[in-house]
Amino acid sequence: MKSPYLINKEEILKLYQPVDSKAHKGTQGHAIIIAGSYGKIGAAVLASKSCLKSGCGLVTTFIPKCGYQILQISIPEVMTVTDENTNFITNVHLPLIPQAIGFGPGIGKELATQKALFEFLRVNKAPLVLDADALNIISENISWLELVPEDTILTPHPKELERLIGKWNSESEKFQKTIAFSEKYKVIVVMKGAPTFIINRTSVYENTTGNAALATAGSGDVLTGILTSLLAQGYEPKYASKLGVYLHGLTADLALPKTGYESFTASTIIKYLGKAFLELEN
Ligand SMILES: NC(=O)C1=CN([C@@H]2O[C@H](COP(=O)(O)OP(=O)(O)OC[C@H]3O[C@@H](n4cnc5c(N)ncnc54)[C@H](OP(=O)(O)O)[C@@H]3O)[C@@H](O)[C@H]2O)[C@@H](O)CC1
Ligand SMILES: Nc1ncnc2c1ncn2[C@@H]1O[C@H](COP(=O)(O)OP(=O)(O)O)[C@@H](O)[C@H]1O
Ligand SMILES: [Mg+2]
């Protein structure tokens, strides 16, 4: 394998698009987050809030009924649409075609949720981020990946990656298998970890931001929201994935002197998103 390209500030400044002074919420993209199940509505809240706080104009969140009040009270700026089912997602019906969709955090693996994901993949054409249980479901139905739009962004942590590509015997085999997977299914794989690598066909990129403060519940859910937001704003998937992982890690680097490792939570990532974006302004 060639040595990875580094995702550093110089590279990010080449692709970052500042918000236009004539922008309005309609030009900033409408994102949909499909997430959550009973006991894991927090994942939907974190992904939705981070989506909104990364510059997206409008965010609609699709959740099972049990999440309705939680979402509306915790993030009044976000619109919600609920499934017929109380505890988990069974039938994704969207009120609009958005500019991007993030699917997976906290959805669980109920059979009805698996069917809902399959039906969604059959009809969806919007740019897509797949995370968490959406990846776990797809791991057991790998041919469904043939249904996703080209350059869909997959964000597995190491265990989710293993479920998708199978076990590896060395780091180099892990990269080889992920490159082959990215080529075969025409997807971008964000290999989350310390550090995070992005695999886009045969190209490998290594992120330079982030630290162990991110080793906390929900930090991946927040990344899904950020990536979905950037896609909705019109960033091409190859740029959205780089900018998203860079900003996500940068929040932890900026926050660390104030929070230390221990008190940093996924909500701290969201809190520091503004400072991370400001680092990109000249
Ligand atoms: N507030 C909420 O609503 C929250 C909801 N959430 C939602 O919960 C769902 C389940 O998500 P999940 O990732 O916890 O479960 P799962 O896929 O079984 O992975 C666990 C296994 O993976 C491994 N592993 C993980 N990271 C690794 C690493 N860096 N490096 C190495 N190994 C690593 C780890 O292995 P271990 O080290 O324990 O052997 C363990 O076996 C999902 O939908 C998510 O969105 C969460 O986001 C939390 C907040
Ligand atoms: N030690 C670490 N250094 C840098 N980044 C880390 C570290 N530990 C975790 N992360 C990042 O935190 C996120 C964890 O995602 P994930 O495991 O999906 O969390 P969750 O499912 O709880 O939301 C990933 O973006 C990962 O790269
Ligand atoms: Mg996760």
Polypeptide structure, described:
With 282 residues, the chain is of the alpha/beta class. It has one domain (5-278): Ribokinase (UDP-N-acetylmuramoyl-L-alanine:D-glutamate ligase, 3-Layer(aba) Sandwich), CATH 3.40.1190.20. It contains eleven helices and ten strands. The protein has a ten-stranded mixed sheet with strand order 1-10-9-8-7-6-5-2-3-4, sandwiched between helices. Helix 2 (41-52) crosses helix 8 (219-232) and helix 8 (219-232) crosses helix 9. Magnesium ion binds at residues 131-132, 157, 220. This is ADP-dependent (S)-NAD(P)H-hydrate dehydratase. Keywords: ATP-binding, Lyase, NAD, NADP, Nucleotide-binding. Homotetramer. InterPro entries: Carbohydrate_kinase_pred_CS (IPR017953), CARKD (IPR000631), Ribokinase-like (IPR029056).
